[in-house]
């Protein structure tokens, strides 16, 4: 039990450190210090910082809001609220951090096959959930029928990831405003 | 003259190292080694690695293809060719590196005001050039008239930056295909 709990403490501290500082800037010592465990205990739990990063990313993915499926709201409203909730989190953190999946994708996917695979899988799963919501919204007549849901979902998620980077660079809502104006305007919305 | 040239060698090596490995993974020693200059000479030319990163980013920005303005092609065709050329560069490098502006934005903009300002400025300039091209294409009747060129340009550039991250994570053309299918289909294109 104690062993399991020390492992969890390390994963949670790693997620926080990787998200705040990036993969390379967050050293093992910084992570074990933040977790309040001795540095020597790290390798009892993880083979490498890379293996820890994969677990931290999985933990991040699981902890993210699961608000796309189910609920009473209309599918297009759910999709919009999904991104608005994410935007609000970033604004609350003064336009920092963004999305750990995208950050790892930009910083480290070129250099670690296991992290790249976890980033790929995380995007794929997310895009599939978005695609299902778009398809549902099409059946309800709220999203234009000429869009392929899979292609539109991929595009939308990629647009979102770029939007997060731009919002952080600008420290302003402008990138978010452009995202919502275009995505939930001309891009997705069916003409009345 | 020799001094100036050593400075240039360092900037060029830094650009290559930052683009390949990221900001934090590329140390000053790695950069001066790659430039073929003594490490000790670094601080004769730059106050900090941060100051060097700003210069490397400016150098990157200036070296990028300037194919959006002028030329004989129609504005919408120029815009498409602009992104296709960038895509081809990334595919040629086996889906690595992506865009240095976006990479710095994701990795380091939260932690360095001078780098964040340079990233912000680089995106802004790029988005303005795209906006001017979209406006030109609207006047030619090729892009739907209901789009605000500035908002559409910001959205498009952000979508592009996210597309680069996804393409690197997937090591496949799928993200690029979604970008071109949506951007140069339902998003921008005027109905006949």
Automatic annotation (TrEMBL), chains A, B:
Domain HTH tetR-type stretches: 4-64
Classification via Gene3D superfamilies: Tetracycline Repressor, domain 2
Pfam families with a match to the protein in the record: TetR_C_13 (PF16925), TetR_N (PF00440)
DNA-binding region: 27-46
Keywords: DNA-binding, Transcription, Transcription regulation
PANTHER family referenced in this protein's UniProt entry, alphabetically: HTH-TYPE TRANSCRIPTIONAL REPRESSOR NEMR, TRANSCRIPTIONAL REGULATORY PROTEIN
Protein name as it appears in the record: TetR family transcriptional regulator C-terminal domain-containing protein
Organism: Nonomuraea marmarensis
Source lineage: Bacteria, Bacillati, Actinomycetota, Actinomycetes, Streptosporangiales
């Amino acid at each position: 039990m104690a062993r399991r709990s020390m492992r969890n403490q390390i994963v949670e501290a790693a997620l926080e450190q990787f998200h705040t500082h990036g993969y390379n800037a967050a050293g093992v010592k910084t992570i074990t210090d933040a977790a309040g465990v001795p540095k020597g205990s790290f390798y009892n739990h993880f083979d490498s910082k890379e293996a820890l990063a994969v677990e931290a990313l999985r933990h991040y993915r699981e902890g993210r809001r699961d608000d796309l499926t189910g609920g009473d709201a209309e599918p297009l409203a759910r999709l919009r609220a999904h991104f608005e909730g994410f935007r609000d989190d970033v604004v609350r953190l003064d336009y920092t951090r963004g999305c750990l999946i995208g950050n790892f994708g930009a910083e480290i996917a070129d250099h670690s096959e296991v992290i790249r695979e976890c980033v790929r899988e995380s995007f794929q799963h997310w895009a599939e959930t978005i695609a299902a919501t778009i398809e549902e919204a099409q059946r309800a007549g709220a999203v234009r029928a000429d869009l392929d849901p899979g292609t539109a979902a991929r595009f939308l998620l990629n647009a979102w990831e770029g939007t997060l980077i731009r919002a952080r660079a600008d420290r302003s809502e402008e990138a978010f405003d452009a995202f919502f104006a275009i995505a939930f305007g001309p891009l997705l919305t069916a003409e009345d």
